[in-house]
Amino acid sequence: MWVEIPDGTFSAPRRRGSGGMVTYERTRTIDATVFRIARIVTVKRQLIAAVEVDAFIPEMHRSRLPAVDGRWVEPGVFRAKAYVLQNKNSALLAQFMASGDHEWDVRDRS
């Protein structure tokens, strides 16, 4: 499944007179093995554009992820966001969205 992981930070100054610097977290999309899918708590009738996933991050992609980030669930597994539109061909995500459940453990299904 395609997931969004952090890829460092970017700082930019605000316009003159608006204050100091603004720091953004850049992201990149990788194809990763997913262990858990969960709905992100949103407003009742808001469109569901993304889900929260626990994904295994390969060693080559871990270099830019902070080691002390609270989104690390267990060694090698990172809690990230997966967009529904990017994963529209994923049968597993389609089944999850149709089920109406709030969370699935998909270790045995993938």
What's the number of helices?
1
In total, the number of domains comes to 1
Q: What is the tally of beta strands?
A: 7
Instruction: Profile the largest sheet.
Output: 5 strands, antiparallel
Strand content: over 45%
Low-confidence stretches: none
- The coarse overall form would be globular
Helices and strands, in N-to-C order? EEEEEEHE
| Share of residues in helices | under 10%
Mean pLDDT across residues: 87
Give the neighbour order of strands across the main sheet: 5-6-4-3-7
What structural category do the secondary elements indicate? mainly beta
Span between termini:
10 Å
Report the C-alpha radius of gyration, rounded: 16 Å
Protein name: Gp64
Organism: Burkholderia cepacia (Pseudomonas cepacia)
3D architecture notes:
This protein is mainly beta. 8% of the residues lie in helices and 45% in strands. The strands form two sheets. Strands 5-6-4-3-7 form a five-stranded antiparallel β-sheet, with no helix packed on it. The protein has a two-stranded antiparallel sheet with strand order 1-2. The chain starts with a strand and ends in a 5-residue tail after the last strand. This is Gp64.
